[in-house]
Amino acid sequence: MNNKAKNLIRFTRLNHNLKGFTLIELLVSISIIAAMSGLFIVNYHGANKRSELGIIKQKLVSDIRLAQNYSLSSKTYDGSTVPKGGWGVHFNLADPTHYIIFADQDGDYEYNDDSNKDKAIEIKTLPAGIIIDSLSLANTVDIVFFPPEPMTYINALPNISVQITLKENINNSTATVSVNFFGLIDTN
Questions:
Q1: 144 contacts 152 by C-beta, under 8 angstroms
Q2: Does any domain span residue 74?
Q3: Among residues of the chain, what percentage have pLDDT more than 90?
Q4: Local structure of residue 127 (DSSP, 8 states)
Q5: The CATH number of the domain where 91 resides is what?
Q6: Which residues make Cβ contacts (< 8 Å) with residue 82, sequence separation at least 6?
Q7: Does some domain include residue 38?
Q8: What pLDDT is attached to residue 64?
Q9: Is 175 within a domain?
């Protein structure tokens, strides 16, 4: 055998003994990792929005309880005057990204946005992508807590309950907050 043949045999043996990955194996591995990463990112974004909906639901419950506590403590809205009708929260489907904490100055257990009637204390804005989707009673709902018990009036009626449904627009997830005529607040 000549030197060329010996070198060729030696080179072939060396190639069979080398350990490593081929280009195809590397491309397949990278594509699997990319696909799994893409799925993770999509699921992470959806889970993040669902989590945000839960946080906003709890914030809404907290704000309703804030109005209830204002009523229990006979909080004044201008430093000296306790509202005649108590404190409340106003929802309007015509403006599904906001709700209002208000002082019921005229005692009618409803929010009137006239400058002479009720006083909007805080206008709360929901984050982008989350809206008030539905109200179980009407397109407008006022929950008013009248001191000292406090009595709960929903749309000026003392013995009804309401459900407020929040919706997150990316996953179409919903969350519901219920308020009954005892002033008990529940979430689903």
A1: yes
A2: yes
A3: 52
A4: P
A5: 3.55.40
A6: 74, 75, 76, 147
A7: no
A8: 96
A9: yes
